[in-house]
Design goal:
This protein is an alpha/beta fold and 450 residues long. It contains 20 helices and ten strands. The strands form three sheets. A six-stranded mixed β-sheet has the order 4-7-6-5-8-9, with helices on both faces. It has a two-stranded antiparallel sheet with strand order 1-2.
């Protein structure tokens, strides 16, 4: 059933008919509380994979009206990187279009067709990087996931928000599929088209909620901030994101993780496969801890099984041998100016702990009053940085400048700067510490890199 066929049941239905019936396409049945959104209103579109088709798509989108719903499907966990393998766009007057980006160098022609048009995405920061790889970047953004958070909805996944605000049930069974599959199965294409089917209607509902609560300006600042921030800066030493790296306490073993990670990444890029499908992170850590010297020893290491591990065993052993002999040993932790974990503040700086203990409940109270998550009221890292080392001259203005330099939005600063200022100037005393309570052993540890 499509959005045009049915409307969700609303409160206040006539009591005389507790089980209303309707006729849809010759079928008479009871109106469900949640209506399954199981087919696009114009049917499942054909996939665009030719230049002529792409030009028709661009012309239709440019001739449409209003904002455009945009989505992308990746093959995370299957292919190397996070590139898009399907792009979905829907705009009033243009309908829904499904584009296979693989045959094209880029989708700049689509970006030009959307020039000046507001894009509606759900969790935009997840899709913007892969769209940018295709030469696509919005001039204006509406993020339905972030809007739902600011509106105070209890669940903010796309299916949940559509259900709560529009009364439609949206299946998400193909979200983790291998979207590099060709040809894409028809049920997957239907799923992909439905992801943008009601984004425009969802936007309208969210705008109404935000306007009612006086938070539309908050959302607009957040959307502009996402676009202004651009793409994430590449991480220094990306191998340090290896899962389980905290188990390594020796610099030579850390060098082994580094060498194995870069070798795996190079091989995965060459084969266009997700690195974890070659060797999982847990195996890299296990090999670094064991430092095997022979093929049998390597294959006896947890995680080194399967054809890739056996066929490439000499490759992995060379990495470990290189780590065993190198003098280029990485530091256990990268330098950081981030505050230590809050659990050790009481031992390291009781005054800072008092500021934190005073500010936290007040920020939570402010967030509750606005019906939004406290982490959306102010990024926790910003709060900790200001409270750990506040400005030398503590005023609302100086705290505001600190928050602004960190990247806080103006609406966040207006609400939280006075709270942080008051907590810094007049912190509540810490509760007396139980003399029987052991000293926090973590307070003696060096702060790990974030």
């Amino acid at each position: 059933m499509t959005p045009e066929n049915l409307e969700p049941t609303t409160a206040g239905a006539p009591a005389a008919d507790p089980t209303p019936h309707i006729t849809v396409d010759g079928f008479e049945g009871r109106i469900p509380e949640i209506i399954d959104l199981d087919a696009p209103r114009e049917g499942v579109p054909l996939v665009i994979d030719t230049l002529a088709g792409l030009e028709r798509c661009a012309a239709a989108i440019a001739a449409g009206s209003g904002p455009a719903g945009v989505d992308a499907e990746r093959a995370s966990g299957f292919r190397y990187g996070q590139r898009a393998f399907l792009v979905q766009i829907r705009r009033d007057g243009a309908g829904t279009w499904l584009i296979d980006p693989e045959p094209f160098d880029d989708l700049k022609i689509i970006n030009e067709a959307l020039r000046g048009v507001e894009w509606i995405l759900h969790a935009a920061t997840q899709d913007l990087p892969c769209l940018a790889e295709l030469g696509m970047w919005p001039d204006k953004l509406f993020d339905t996931e972030l809007a739902a958070r600011l509106a105070g909805l209890p669940r903010v996944g796309l299916a949940a928000v559509i259900e709560q605000l529009l009364g439609f049930g949206l299946a998400k069974e193909h979200s983790a599929a291998d979207w590099s599959t060709r040809p894409l199965p028809e049920p997957w294409l239907r799923y992909a088209a439905l992801d943008v089917e009601v984004l425009a209607e969802l936007r309208e509902e969210l705008i109404e909620l935000l306007e009612t609560d006086g938070k539309l300006e908050f959302a607009e600042q957040e959307f502009a901030g996402i676009l202004g921030a651009g793409l994430p800066v590449p991480r220094v030493d990306p191998w340090r994101k290896t899962s389980g790296l905290h188990q390594i306490r020796d610099r030579r073993q850390l060098a082994a993780v580094r060498e194995l990670w870069y070798e795996r990444d190079q091989l995965a890029r060459k084969r266009d496969v997700a690195p974890s499908r070659l060797i999982p992170d847990s195996a890299l850590v296990a090999a670094a801890k064991a430092m095997p010297a022979t093929v049998p020893q390597l294959l006896a290491t947890k995680g080194f099984h399967g054809r890739a591990a056996q066929r490439e065993a000499p490759r992995w052993l060379r990495c470990i041998a290189g780590a065993r002999n190198t003098e280029d040993l990485p530091p256990l932790h990268l330098p950081t100016n981030a505050p230590p974990p809050p659990r050790v503040w009481t031992d390291r700086d009781p005054d800072a702990a008092a500021r934190l203990g005073t500010a936290r409940p007040r920020l939570q109270e402010a967030a509750d009053g606005l019906k939004l998550p406290v982490e959306n009221l102010l990024t926790p890292d910003y709060m900790r940085r200001v409270l750990w080392r506040p400005p030398s001259d503590i005023t609302v203005e100086s705290v505001s400048e600190e928050l602004r330099a960190l990247g806080a939005r103006e609406w966040q600063i207006a609400i939280t700067a006075p709270i942080l200022t008051e907590a810094s100037l007049n912190p509540q005393p810490l509760p007396p510490k139980d003399p029987k309570e052991p000293r926090n052993p973590a307070s003696k540890e060096r702060t790990p890199a974030p």
